[in-house]
Amino acid sequence: MKKMLLATVATALTAGTAYAAAHSSETKIGVILGFTGPIESLTPMMADSAELALKEINESGNFLDGVTLGSVRADSTCVDSAAATAAAERLVTTDGVVAIMGADCSGVTGAVLSNVAVPNGIPMVSPSATSPGLSTAEDNGLFFRTAPSDARQGEVLSGILADKGITSVAVTYTNNDYGKGLSDSFISSFEASGGTVTLNAPHEDNKADYSAEIGALASAGGDLLVVLGYSDSGGKGMIQAALDTGAFDTFMMGDGMYGDALVAELGADMEDSFGAVPWSEGAGADAFKTITDAAGINGESSFTRESYDAAALIALAMMAGGEASSAAVKDNLLAVANGPGEEILPGELGKALQILKDGGEVDYVGATNVELIGPGEAAGSYRYYTIKGGAYETVDFR
Amino acid sequence: MEFLNGFVALANFVLIPGVAYGSQLALGALGVTLIYGILRFSNFAHGDTMAFGTMCTILVTWGLQGMGVSLGPLPTALLAIPFGILGCAALILFTDRVVYRFYRAQRVKPVIMVIVSMGVMFIYNGVTRFIIGTEDQNFADGERFLIGAREFRTLTGLDEGLAIRTTQGLTVVTAVIVVAVLFWFLNRTRTGKSMRAYSDNEDLALLSGINPERVVMVTWLIVAALATIAGVLYGLDKSFKPFTYFQLLLPIFAAAIVGGLGSPLGAIAGGFVIAFSEVAITYAWKKVLGYWMPESLAPDSLVQLMSTDYKFAVSFVILLIVLLFRPTGLFRGKSV
To answer: Which of A8, A78, A363, B329 is deepest in the core (most CB within 10 A)?
Structure first.
């Protein structure tokens, strides 16, 4: 009796799945972000934003006939290339994803790209890998990013210093592909414009103590300390240690240092510090805020906009190619991201799908004014801010 | 004046941070060394035990702050530490009951216990993050500085500032008190003596009527107290983030091994050796020498022995050298 019951249940289950499969098939997109590790406090919001875009696509009902998009999350760890590669390998071979939204940190992104994406022909759209090295990586046209390369950020940062008339700075960067790339591009741009870097010292993230680094930087001197790290990790530790010992009072910060928690805790002591962060203003950003507020997601966190855009671009490229396949994403992503065509804001994905269905063209603007240049990376606009009275204040956009 | 300026710079960037960081490591290493000495395995879960104890303390601290309780210039967290220790002790004793006791009864090899403790580490890791989240938590209140850098400059008229944080002072004072109490306990009380007897020879101790389960329990209780105190002091001084506590494990183990695993005195010495090797050897002497040398000889370069990238390498080279010449550590602990 027991056996028969089991058999019945098993048959019912198989029948159920078969039934579902006949009516709609689910195409999977991998979401590989560092859910554990140094940026684990940012990634949940990034993944939520990406999945929000997929949800919007599914709910519009306009996507390729009967196909729905599902997401499979995997952990990139941000720092461990081997773990990230294994996770991505799992996404491709076991879960059968056709495209990857991710990875997040530049080092693991490069590893996943060369070890998994290129051999398997899976396109990747990273929301936050900004290392200049990725622009020239061997990618067979499979790699895109909605975040701008740090080569541009280095120019922006040195431009801000030039405007302020500061010519001597100490630099500290987080010791990984992102920090090294950004510090190299900043320093070459800064020195080309006549500035001096007194010392360029790396720091490791999440270490117990930063006294040694601050001691060396304080000895080297400089008008201010340029911190190119992560706001909830080593970068914050460095600023804290510098403030505590009185080594530096003013800081210039790279994009990884932008975070509400940082100013909430240290803002009062960082008066007149400043920095730049990829930012977008205007209709796209406002529309994104509206839909994230409605969905109960924190859309103000770092790289949430880029994540939403990355996922949306993957889906629109599939629609433009007429099939939910890797090749469709690879071939059509640039076309849907750039003009000509109807401009698409966050929350209008359903409309975009309809236009593509009718044979029209779209120019995805998204939350970050997406404009992909060169090898498929965002051109990027930066917000130059200063800290006044313990809060961020926008100076201008550049 | 010049000499004083140089000395103040050195104190501000090397001596004070080194002493405070050394005390933090020493407290952590004491816990590791006690477990190694008495229970005979390297407890990889120690960093996350510290995180869990600190988390309990933070939750109680927030409660106290909510009720308007405060210690004035001292952080409220000090009041909450006993509750944190209770929470941590409950977790550890529970773990011992359901995990370690099973393996102890089988008298497994220490290496198996080490792997078991790694499993426990991952579970603690998850539990802590599940309850309090992965983000930085700030729970320090009261006065941040005993004396701030700017204050010091106006007070003394020197060019260099000297900053001493309340938490740095607290850490050193607490470390001294805790170590004194621990030594008194181990050397003077009946329970302490029975713990040392158990550590020296388990079977003989059993024959002389010492109850091993009681020794184990007392050890875990002391470890819970040490871990919580070390974790809270560290969290007050820097900040609380579960991932950082996990990373603390490495310098703590280095400290315990340099000093000699199983030797409490060694753990303390090891803590300071590791802390100073990280902070002092990579120090750039430009500023200090600029004050101390005559104008004409003042260095242009940084006068840095090696870049700060190598600070971890330095502490591990010291570890290697010590183990080569004294395999049991500076204070004759047990060989690894």
So the answer is: A78
Which pair of tokens denotes residue A31? 């979401």
Nearest to A346 by CA among A381, A320, A316: A316
Q: Which residues span the domain enclosing A180?
A: 151-277+383-397
Q: Is the pTM of this model over 0.90?
A: no
Question: Strands A99-102 and A25-33, how do they pair?
Answer: parallel
CA distance A281 to A107: 29
pLDDT for A38: 75
Distance of CA A314 to the CA centre of its chain: 15
Same domain as A255, residue A227:
yes
Pick from A190, A245, A180: which is nearest to A212 by CA? A245
pLDDT digits (tens, 9 = 90+) for B79-123: 999 999 999 999 999 999 999 999 998 989 989 999 999 999 999
SS3 A348: coil
Is the complex ipTM higher than 0.85? no
Q: What pLDDT, in 10s, does the model give residues A116-156? A: 999 999 999 999 998 888 888 889 999 999 988 888 899 99
Interface list for B 309-328 with A (CB within 8 A): 309, 311-312
Three-state SS annotation for B236-271: HHCCECHHHHHHHHHHHHHHHHHHCCCCHHHHHHHH
How does DSSP assign B164-203, residue by residue?
Answer: EEHHHHHHHHHHHHHHHHHHHHHHHSHHHHHHHHHHH-HH
Report the greatest alpha carbon distance in chain B: 74
> Pick from B136, B248, B287: which is nearest to A261 by CB?
B136
Task: Tell me: do A300 and A207 sit in the same domain.
Answer: no
Q: How many independent structural domains does chain A possess?
A: 2
Instruction: Please indicate, yes or no, if residue A16 is contained in any of the structural domains.
Output: no
Does A214 touch chain B if contact means CB atoms closer than 8 Å? yes
* Residue in B closest to A203 by C-alpha: B309
Query: What pLDDT shows up at residue A16?
Result: 44
The token pair at B217 is 């329990």
CATH number at residue A198: 3.40.50.2300
| pLDDT tens digit sequence for A262-307 | 888 888 888 899 999 887 777 888 899 999 999 999 888 888 999 9
Same domain, A190 and A331: no
Cα–Cα nearest to A89, from A107, A115, A124: A115
| Least-confidence region, from B209-213, B256-260, B264-268, B312-316 | B312-316
Parallel, antiparallel or unpaired: strands A382-388 and A274-278: antiparallel
CB B236 within 8 A of CB A240: no
CA nearest to B308 within chain A? A213
| Tokens 């290496």 sit on residue | B111
Domain boundaries, chain B: 2-31+41-246
| Tens digits of residue pLDDT in A216-268 | 898 888 899 999 998 878 898 899 899 888 889 899 999 888 888 888 888 88
* Same domain? A36 vs A139: yes
SS3 assignment, position B60: helix
Strand partners, A378: A148, A372
Residue A248 Cα to chain centre, angstroms: 30
- Nearest chain B residue to A219, by CA: B287
Q: What are the chain B neighbours of A245 within 8 Å (beta carbons)?
A: 12-13, 17, 149, 161, 163
Tokens linked to B182? 């621990």
